[in-house]
Design goal:
Blueprint (H helix, E strand, L loop, with lengths): L1 H22 L8 H30 L6 H32 L1
Helix pairs in contact: 2-3
């Protein structure tokens, strides 16, 4: 029972220390989360729109049975999602490093 109490106290203490560090963090900006949303949104939107633009140009020049617009839209979307995952993972690693 004493061991469970010590575990509980240690967990509460660690959580409290983490919260205090977060509140007193230098350069803490409440708008940082919104900036990250914007970064993730643009990191998906830009490659997708570039894929559509290049695809439309290719479809216009080389009319045929293939749809370059659709193909490059999907490629741009996949690239953008990978890019967003990269940024989220980078921020997650940074937060985990700060917590340790």
């Amino acid at each position: 029972m004493a061991e469970q109490d010590n575990d509980f106290r240690r967990k509460v203490s660690n959580n409290e220390q983490r919260k205090l560090r977060a509140r007193s963090g230098k350069g803490h900006n409440p708008l940082r989360g919104f900036a990250m949303f914007g970064l993730i949104g643009w990191s998906v939107a830009v490659p997708t729109l570039l894929g559509v633009t290049v695809g439309l140009a290719l479809d216009h020049r080389h009319a045929g049975g293939r749809s370059w617009t659709l193909s490059l839209l999907i490629a741009g979307l996949l690239l953008g999602c990978w890019n967003a995952w990269y940024w989220v993972q980078k921020e997650s690693d940074k937060i985990n490093k700060e917590n340790k």
